[in-house]
Design brief:
- The structure is a single chain.
- The chain is α/β, with parallel strands linked by helices and 370 residues long.
- The chain has two domains: 90 residues; 264 residues, TIM Barrel, CATH 3.20.20.
- It is 41% helix and 15% strand.
- It is globular, with a radius of gyration of 21 Å.
- It starts with a helix and ends in a 19-residue tail after the last helix.
- The relative contact order is 0.13.
Amino acid sequence: MQFKKLKKENIMNSLNLNDLFKLKEILENKVVKNTDNISDNYQLAFLIMQLKPTIYDVERAYNLISPFIGLKIKKINRLNSIINLVLTNHKKTTNRNLDRINWSIYNKCPIICDGCYNDFRNKQLSILEIKEIVSKLKESKVMNITISGGDPLLWKDLYDFLEYTYSLGLQIGIDTVGFNLDKKLFFNENIKYIGLPLDSINKKIQFKMRKSRFDFLSNFKENMNMINQLNVAIKINTMASKINLHTLCILGEYLNDNYNNIFWSIYQWSPIRAKLFTQQEFEITIAQFEEEVFKLKQKFPNLNINSKNNEERSFNHILIQNDGTVITFGQFYGEVFYLGNILEDNLNDMINNPLISRQSTKFKSSIIFQ
């Protein structure tokens, strides 16, 4: 592995844990020899925070960057703000029951989204391992699971999974591209909602947001016609970026004029895994996002708009990946934090990790769509 190349990037954009632990060991030795190197101290402190940190690790990370906090270095100040959040959360930590968890349950997807938060782990859990995890979630009082991918509808074990979760009384939300959406899916009693993506009704803009070999818009309309006939609730997921921000009002008019019983979730495009040139093409500010969302909520009250900017989503999610690793996200590029492995580690320890916001809506059962 080329550690120098990895070091130039914001370290954990590609979560290869073995390599990251090796890099951490190399940086430990470098920092011991030279405690005044800002870059090495920052990189080591960041790695410490990303790799399942204890409160001792958090304090050590702070000590590594504290000599440089007054120098107005953006990365140092951002890491310091994360450390302060964790230290504050640690003081408030009590054992909490997680109500809802997100699970990227499958590692195949028929579309390509620039800056996708999922890094598609090579190892795919077996259905037996997945049932073991479901039982573990049930024991920890998790009642709602939102599965995504990749695309769960491409997963051969989906209906086996749904049957098992139903037997345990768990509610399931499914976020899917919808290319092979079958109406029989809607007759599973434990499916709480199905989420479909749509970012624009302009074909070129939609393709720019989510690249596909299929006719994305035609497929969406076919799915919605079927859903309208079944009279079930549907969640529309829209990612707001520089590419489509100016067309969201047109999208709102289309949804408002054609469909009933819709919940429209609008999210600020995230740069978590996006390269610099992609960030420059897609990224918008929180102020730009909130200004547009305010207009949409005023104009389309019937669309049940739920919005989240990147700051609100920061450290709000606990995400199980398709290989069982458990992560949470920050707000900016590279801010991916490893909490453990769902098969190997104690779930309650991960739930109560002080990286997770104490205001996370995942602990509140009254809100369905987040």
